Structures are given as C-alpha cells and as structure tokens.
Amino acid sequence: MIRISQLKLPVTHKKSDLEKKIYTTLKISSSDLLAWHIEKKSLDARKKPNLFYVYTIAANVQNEKRIIKKNRNKNITIKEENDSYHCTPTGTHVLTYRPVVIGTGPAGLFCGYALARMGYRPILLERGASMEERQKDVQDFWKTGKLNPESNVQFGEGGAGTFSDGKLNTLVHDTHNRGKEVLRLFVKYGAPESILYDAKPHIGTDILAKVVKNIREAIISMGGEVRFHTKVTGIRTKRSIDFSDEPALAMLHLEDTKTNIGEDLLTDVAVLAIGHSARDTFGLLNLSDIKMEPKPFAVGVRVEHPQDMIDESQYGKNAPESLPAAAYKLTAKAKEGRGVYTFCMCPGGYVVNASSEENRLAVNGMSYSGRNGKNANSAVIVTVSPEDFPEKGILGGLAFQRQLEEAAFAEGQGKIPVQLFGDFKKNVPSSSAGAIAPQMKGAYSWGNVRSIFPEFIARCLEEGITEFGKKIPGYDRDDAVLSGVESRTSSPVRILRDETLQSSVKGLYPCGEGAGYAGGITSAAMDGLKVAEAVSQKYMAFDNPK
Ligand code: FAD
Q: Which residues form the FAD-dependent protein C-terminal domain (predicted)?
C-alpha cells in the first residue's frame, strides 16, 4: 500500500475529484489505481473564504516501489505500520468465579466486550436501567423535573456519554491500536465508517444509543451477562494467597435499585468502571482498603451562542451549506494564573440537565448526529485543585462539586439557572433572553449564575470569556447565555492502581474516567480494553476466544 498525505481539495469537491487527484498525484493512469481508501480527513480553514479538505489516502497500485522511486515526494510513502489490534489470554491463574464488570459506560462496556470475546463470560452490573427504559426516564426528567437518582443522564446503560454530543476524538497516545479498535467496534455495531478517518469523529446521542445496545447484545451472544438495576453497595476482601498479607477481592454485595433487595456475589475479579458521578460508591470505597487520592478537575458554566456566529468565525462568510456545524476549542490564562478553557463543545447542540442527585443540579451538552440545533454550546471551565476545596481529605473535591450543585439547584429553584453574560459581569440576575434563545433539555429559569461560584472562579470565567471574544468575534457578547453548573468534567478522585492495573485490593481493577484513567468516551473505552488485557494476562479464560 502507498500512503499519500496532504492531498488538498476544495470542500465542494466530488468523490471523483479525489480519485483523479490520487492518480494524477502518483502520476499513474486511472487503471493502475487498484483500490484506495481515506485514512484521515480534516478541514483546513486557515485561508478563509477558501476552505479545503486535507486527506491522507492509502492506495493499492501496480508497481508500488517504482512509483515511489519515480515520485520522490515526502508525501508519498510506503504504508508500513499495521494498525490491527490483538489480545490473546496468556494468564495461568484459574478463575473460581466469573469476572465481574461494574458499570456499563464506555469503559465497562468495552472491557466486558473484550473479556467476552476472549471467553471469560463476564457478568456486567449496572445500577441504572437498560437503554430503552433509561431513555424514557431521562425524557421524563427533562419534561417534569422528577429525577430518578438511579436512571438519569449519568447512570444507566451506556454510562455518562449516552446523552452526549458523541464526540469520539481523544488525545491519548495510541501505541497499541486500542483507539483504532474502539472506533472499528463502533462501526461494527452501527456507527458510520467516516469516524475511522474524520479528524473530529462524532456520532451524536441517537447513533450512540444504538451502538451501545448492539454491543450489549454481542456481549450476551458471546456468553456474557448484563444485569441492570444492580448496584454494588459493598466489597468484601480476604487475605490474598499469592500476595501474602495484601487484601484480595472475595465478594461483592449487590442491591436491586428497584426493590432494594440485597444479594452477595462471589468473585475473585471485578473491574471497577463506575464513572465520575458514583459518589455513594466513592464513599463506600473510601471506607475500605482501596487506596484513593484527591485530584484536580475543573468547574464552570456552559455558554451558548448562535451556531451561525460560530460557523462564520470558523469558515468565513457564505461558506457552503454542506460543511458541518463548526466546532472550536479555546484556552486562556486568567490574571491569577489559573487555566480557563472550553470543554466538550457541542456544535448545533443542546444544554442538558445532567443531574444525578436530588436537590443538586449539574449541566452538560448534547447533540444529535445531524448537529442541526440553532445554538453552539460549550463548557467554559476553570481548573480547581485540592487546595481550593473547602473540605480537605480524599473526597474534598466531591464535597466541593456537591456544594456548587446545591447552589445551582437553589438559584434555579430546581430548574437550570441561566444568565446573560452582560449580567454575569455586573453580578445581577437576568430576567429574559436577548437575541439568543436558550436551547435546553430540561426547564430553565433566569437568575444569577455568578452567585453559584466562589468569587475567584467567577472572576476567572469572566476573564476567560472576555479573552475568547478576541478569538471568536461575539463570544463575549452581552446576550451570550450562561448556565450552571458544569461540575462533572472529570473525576475528583483517582483510585490507585499498580503496574498490573490492580488496586490495593488484589483482583479489583479500577478502570475508566471515574478511577481517573480516562477523559471522554473513546479514552474510557480504550482503558476498558487495556484492563481486559491485564485480566487476560493473569487469569485463564473459561471458553475459547471468539
Ligand atoms: P461512565 O460513562 O460514567 O459509566 C459508569 C457507569 O457505572 C454508569 O453507567 C453508572 O450507572 C455505573 N455505576 C456507577 N456506580 C455503580 C455501582 N456502584 N454499581 C453498578 N453500576 C455503577 N465524552 C466524550 O468523549 N465526548 C462527548 O461528546 C461527551 N459528551 C458528554 C455529554 C454529557 C451529557 C456527559 C454527562 C458526558 C459527556 N462526555 C463526553 C464524557 C463521557 O461521557 C465520559 O468521559 C465517559 O462516559 C466515561 O466513561 P466511563 O465508562 O469511565 O464512566
């Protein structure tokens, strides 16, 4: 295969233009181009209004070596690396019980899938509801405000990313092709092939929900089991045989979240993929032998602007309609040295009430695959670290999140509190919208979002948004809509794990975002694969790998 990089074509080009560009660049006839596919596609908007797609192409041609020699071009090379992913169990320890995966977010789901594929017949436990039931619970919450603390935007099949923008990009360095494998599995189970090459892959909540259900069915068909409404409420340890004095996992206590009926499940291996919002479970872990530490995270607001305004800033005026709703990523440094940055930006999306606890309110962003909502929204957040938390100790960050969420709930009287940026600066409540109508899932109420925060955070947010106005004209407009509180940006704790990926309780594998080893859907799923590999390096599978 030959790889051609930096192939540039105007954004309005046709597929036939790209094919022609491939054989003319290689200086071959069309009949010598046997097959080709796109490896990467990105948008180059640096020379607005001239917009280009830049491609990396893999091409199968006659006489590869002769063509490389003839062209002498650094953008035309032989494609050498192999991007396949393999994991074969090499473990020798015999498992007495089936391995358990706690949580069916991307980390738990992909870990469970990989274990099932290798013949481990895992049992997946999820405190929340199945996708079908959960979708009804979430819609009901957005309509009536009645929260189901076990089935909501954070909890339930698919985890926190289910009602999301479905961005699948990650900054994790992919040395084992885990990221590629995650995207390939997404495609296998229902996502469009374009995510394999788009520089900013995105599928939206609608496609994501279908993929999650299909992966669940695949896990079951490979001998796995998925149990909903099943929360882990206790972890029992024993003294480990092979680690002499170290505690090892012996049993999980489970509770049916609908009936509250308890049950014990014997197991020697459990993957703890509980996400960053399982505060009760963090509390439980804190009382056990499991070592954890507090970690920095970020808090702030969600900001809405008209998508047209963002499109114009990124693409210039009169850009072709075929272009996707534009995204952005901005950073600034506040005067006192703290980082302020945009996070989880949702083009053509909605702000969602993403709460999971009674009398506390958190927001986030979501979009559908078409990204055709009127507004662009993004979190604008400020880094906070353990020194900033009023309460000290391992769960100090969690207590700080709760404090902010209680203030947001009180400010909006149970609805999402919203404020115009002009009023945020003056620290006065807003009473109505300007030219931007909030696009929200869940009821909202005009008020003073600034009052939710300690002054140092409010000041940094104001400075950051003002600074962003220098990069995107209108970003700091007085009628930009701010809502709060963005408090679930990453985990407030890290559950420590050793080089075999086990916690201080042997057999218990912390995994994904909640444990502090991922940030986002794809990286959580990659960590799920990594943990499945670690389990397979220690324990023998029950069945032959699929
Ligand atoms: P989670 O997805 O949080 O999954 C943990 C699961 O464990 C949950 O289903 C929970 O119910 C279950 N659980 C918790 N405790 C227990 C217990 N005791 N017993 C049994 N089950 C338990 N990321 C992106 O990359 N792109 C995006 O576009 C994006 N948008 C987002 C939009 C929203 C609204 C939200 C909330 C998040 C978004 N994220 C996005 C972040 C992304 O969802 C997370 O990074 C990702 O889901 C983390 O995966 P995880 O598997 O580690 O944890």
A: 296-489
